[in-house]
Structures are given as structure tokens and as C-alpha cells.
Design a protein that fits this description.
Layout lengths: L1 E4 H6 L1 H9 L4 E5 L2 E6 L2 H10 L3 H6 L23
Length: 82
């Protein structure tokens, strides 16, 4: 993946997008710091579906209640011992 300064990316945005569509994404830098990434929409979709959300993982977990350790009840924030 190529690094390109923001001012250069602005000047040749069409070429940056064409490169991304051909599988050569770009890291956009500003003042030497990595700020953004340009990738093709196809690559974005692939990446966004590759890793399930934490909520999905919890909802679809094969764990049963007996698999989890026992926990004591949470203390109230209004508990004078807190």
C-alpha cells in the first residue's frame, strides 16, 4: 500500500481511486501522520464482512450458563461502601 500526502492525493484523486480499484490502496498522510486509507469498495465490503461484530459473536456463542464462572452481584454506585 502506497503512502501519499493529502495535497498530492487531492491533486490526483482519480489516479488514487483507479489504483485502489486495481488492488493498490493508498494511505493518506497529513503532516507526516497516517490519517486515512483509500481502498476499493469491493475491498471495503470484503473487510467489513470478514470479522463479525462482538454483539453477533455473543448472540451466537455456543456457551451455556454452566460454562461461565459465577460472579458476585455488582455493587450499586450508591452503595456507601463504594
Amino acid at each position: 500500500m502506497n503512502e501519499i500526502q493529502l495535497k498530492d492525493a487531492k491533486a490526483k484523486l482519480s489516479a488514487v481511486i483507479d489504483d485502489a480499484m486495481n488492488g493498490n490502496g493508498a494511505i493518506i498522510t497529513r503532516h507526516g501522520r497516517k490519517e486515512a486509507v483509500v481502498i476499493s469498495f469491493q475491498e471495503f465490503e470484503r473487510l467489513s464482512k470478514a470479522v463479525p461484530s462482538f454483539g453477533w459473536l455473543l448472540a451466537n456463542s455456543p456457551l451455556e450458563e454452566a460454562d461461565l464462572p459465577e460472579r458476585s452481584p455488582a455493587r450499586s454506585l450508591h452503595d456507601p461502601q463504594f
